[in-house]
Amino acid sequence: MNEPSSTSLVHDPLFRDYPSPPTRGSVKKVGGNPWNRLSGLMELTLFILLIICVYRLFSPEVERQNGLISDRNQLEIIRDAKQLDLEKLRQEHRLLKTDRQFLDSVARDRLDLQFAGEHVIRLERENRLGNHGPVK
């Protein structure tokens, strides 16, 4: 029987022979080729430049988007305040249509109206801000 030499060849199931893997002591450390080092350095430099270019390309859009988001938040605050004002006005409108006493008080307070023969006495005092206003 012919036995293959066990020192240098390992038998592959696909019938390819290749040399056995080197052992730890048999590998010599060779100083790297300077071109390989420069090639790796250039790849790193190109990668960093690519990241910088992408940042410079998209940073104005991100800033614009942040500005639009802050504008939207301010508009939502204004909208909510207007909604509260609208609800107050709707309630006042409903009371003006349905409540006679509320209508009389609004006519006296805001429009300075009075019934025939009626005398309205207003007391005004200075509030904390120094403004004169009717006493409630």
List keywords for this structure.
136 residues, two-stranded antiparallel ribbon, two-stranded antiparallel sheet, 2 helices, 4 strands, 55% helix, rod-shaped
Low-confidence stretches: none
Strand content: 5-15%
Largest sheet: 2 strands, antiparallel
**Through-space gap between termini:** 121 Å
List SSEs in N-to-C order: EEHHEE
Question: What does this protein look like?
Answer:
This protein has helices at residues 34-98, 100-109, and strands at residues 9-11, 17-19, 124-126, 132-134. A hairpin with a 5-residue loop joins strand 3 and strand 4. The longest helix has 65 residues, at 34-98. The chain has a two-stranded antiparallel sheet. Strands 3-4 form a two-stranded antiparallel sheet. With 136 residues, the protein is mainly α. It is rod-shaped and about 125 Å long. It is 55% helix and 9% strand. The N and C termini lie far apart (121 Å).
Can you give me a brief rundown of this structure?
By secondary structure, the protein is mainly alpha-helical. It is 55% helix and 9% strand.
Q: What order do the helices and strands come in, and which of them pair?
A:
Layout (H helix, E strand, L loop, with lengths): L8 E3 L5 E3 L14 H65 L1 H10 L14 E3 L5 E3 L2
Antiparallel strand pairs: 1-2, 3-4
